[in-house]
Amino acid sequence: MTDVVTYTRHDEIAVLRIANPPVNALSQAVRQGLSDAMDRAESEDGVKAVLIVGDGRAFIAGADIKEFGKPPMEPNLPDLCTRIEASPLLVVASMHGVSLGGGLEVALGCHYRVAQPSARVGLPEVHLGILPGAGGTQRLPRLTGAEKAVEAITTGRHIKAPEALELGIIDKIEEGDPETVGLAYARDLLASNAARRPVSEMPNPQGIDWDATHAALLKKGRGQLSPATAMRAVQAASELPFDEGIKRERELFMDLMNTDQRKGLIHAFFNERAVSNLPELKGVAPRALQSIGVIGGGTMGAGIATACLLSGLNVVMIEMSDDAAEAAKGRIGGNLAGALKRGKINQEKHDNLLSIALEVSQNYDSLKDVDLVIEAVFEEMDVKKQVFAKLDAACKPGCVLASNTSYLDVNEIAASTTRPADVIGLHFFSPAHVMKLLEVVVADQTAPDVVATGFALGKMLGKVAVRAGVCDGFIGNRILSTYRAVAGHMVLDGASPFQIDDALTDFGFAMGPFAVADLAGLDIGWATRKRKAATRHPDERVPTYIDRLCEQGHYGQKTGEGYYIYEKGKRGGTPNPKILELIKDEQQTLGITPRDFSDAEIVRRYMCAMVNEAAEVVGEGIARRPLDVDMTLLFGYGFPRYWGGPMKWADIQGLDAVLADIERYGQEDAWFWQPAPLLKQLVAEGRTFDDLNKEAA
Ligand code: CAA
Description:
Elements: E1 5-10, E2 13-18, H1 28-43, E3 49-54, H2 77-85, E4 90-95, E5 98-100, H3 102-109, E6 112-115, E7 120-122, H4 136-144, H5 146-155, E8 159-160, H6 161-167, E9 172-173, H7 178-191, H8 210-220, H9 226-239, H10 242-257, H11 260-274, E10 291-295, H12 299-310, E11 314-318, H13 322-341, H14 347-357, E12 358-361, E13 372-375, H15 381-394, E14 400-403, H16 410-415, E15 423-428, E16 437-441, H17 448-460, E17 464-468, H18 476-493, H19 497-507, H20 513-520, H21 522-532, H22 545-551, E18 564-565, E19 574-575, H23 577-590, H24 599-619, H25 626-636, H26 646-653, H27 655-666, H28 677-685, H29 689-696
Parallel strand pairs: 2-3, 3-4, 4-6, 5-7, 6-9, 10-11, 10-13, 11-12, 13-14, 14-15, 16-17
Antiparallel strand pairs: 1-2, 7-8, 15-16, 18-19
Pfam family, one: 3HCDH
Catalytic activity: a (3S)-3-hydroxyacyl-CoA + NAD(+) = a 3-oxoacyl-CoA + NADH + H(+)
InterPro entries: 3-OHacyl-CoA_DH_NAD-bd (IPR006176), 3HC_DH_C (IPR006108), 6-PGluconate_DH-like_C_sf (IPR008927), ClpP/crotonase-like_dom_sf (IPR029045), Enoyl-CoA_hyd/isom_CS (IPR018376), Enoyl-CoA_hydra/iso (IPR001753), NAD(P)-bd_dom_sf (IPR036291)
């Protein structure tokens, strides 16, 4: 036996209790402990049944993800599940909290399953780039049928106990202490002479249209392999005897285990959690947060207010006029109506949030009691400074004063107040009640407990909060402007915007940069180009063909025409032929002979530009660790999760190869392609970005 599995006897029943905090992951010690305890139960006189329960907050949250990628250690999980199922004793699982992945597979290896009403089960392995590899793809469909099993396994969703009962995944729901409930159930089963009931001996599920389902899953996964591959394993459950199905599951599991996607997704899993663990905040208590002020009720301010209200915070919103206040209320009301429709809140909560928790005022005095205030007004330094002067006068001592600026200098904003230590940047992404990313921008004088409060707010709002330093665009928008620029260069040199968008969506991005520009509004980039024209370096290449379209009043989706033409009522647009003409004119003016680009070259240049700028951002300390960049791009910029982020992508490609390409591109455009010193240093030292993450942990 091991420390993490204890064995106790209750008359004819042996209780195996797993205690491996925080979530009872199936580490080698747990697997060994369960296997040894099964041996003991079978060897002791008088034992007729085994009950498996979990200690603490969950039954079992799955295989121990920290062991992935390391040499396998016996006993392996599939053998353990088979061993449990093959026991001559009656084996019962009593499940509470979550039973996920290998945790559900252990339960499926048991002969009977009882769960708490609040329990959740699921096979979320596809989100880690793998598939349920301990019989889950073979046993689940024998209980639920193929279609339901494909849905559960390819979405990886958590299934609540009542639905799990309906689907046949569990046999009974009973509230109470899991061990007491499990013992009572086992006793009833013994009393009624219930037979062992191995799922592997149940009939094969009927087939579905496998090829059509596979094609649909590939399309939906935008390049992610695990859902479609997991479906093939369920197909084997339908078509092969159990033992052969298990072999097929293992082959497909190993195929996925060896993919870069598995590495990327597991990097994302751990770093999504690690990103808010800042060594500098250890032992620093955040300030209390109950009520939040929001200045400005436009799309962004209304989204921030909505996110705060939905998280149980009171909101005081400041607007400038009756009309603006009404419009802001309308926007927040619209957002909350959406939450009501999606079942996130009920009607009573919805009404209370609007009538009690929200106050819209035109008077800064209404902010006197708020704990933190977020300014979301027009993106201009003078306007921000005026707002911060008013906040400085109106807010109580200790109130955190935050700006939602997306690129302005937070030091300059802080310096315009008498309390720069209380000033911070909190950069939300639109729509702020939906997007997961929050950049916590730390200025030179920001107090540590103000930083901790920024992270505490992020946690309350369910955001992924990332620490950023002050520079133009912080982490995300600064890197965006560089990879956006290289897309522009490729257009000038011969790749069409449509080919670039297609190549990047094939790579896994939610949208290509030109479709994004249409969505954001082409007038935004146009204004920035005009603003920056006077100070631009003479060697900087900036395409201006799209300005011709803006001059005609076409700003993208909102006007129906941009890079694409949008028809009312239709999703997405069709390529705008005018664009190709405008590009041709500019190429002629500049004397450029267009050339062909392969999709692979487009992706490589785009990614190299992203990685190089990201390495600058880390090298300058704007991002403390490469993982901060990865999480910023994943949660704010539609970067494909299965690549783990640009830094993980670069590690997987090999930093030396990435640097070599950057140097090669630099022969065409030495101003743009200057290799980042940090990238050069890591290559010279034979280290990776992930090495830096580990050193910072
Ligand atoms: N292995 C190792 N560590 C795990 C883990 C696992 N399966 N699941 C969670 N943890 C760790 C987390 O990394 C976190 O560690 P830190 O505190 O050091 O950051 C800690 O447990 C708590 O996790 P959360 O912060 O996520 O806590 P939560 O309450 O918000 O969520 C959870 C709990 C729902 C279990 C969530 O952690 C989760 O979804 N875990 C992953 C579950 C999963 O994917 N299981 C399948 C594993 S693959 C498998 O089983 C393969 C197979 O068939 C062979």
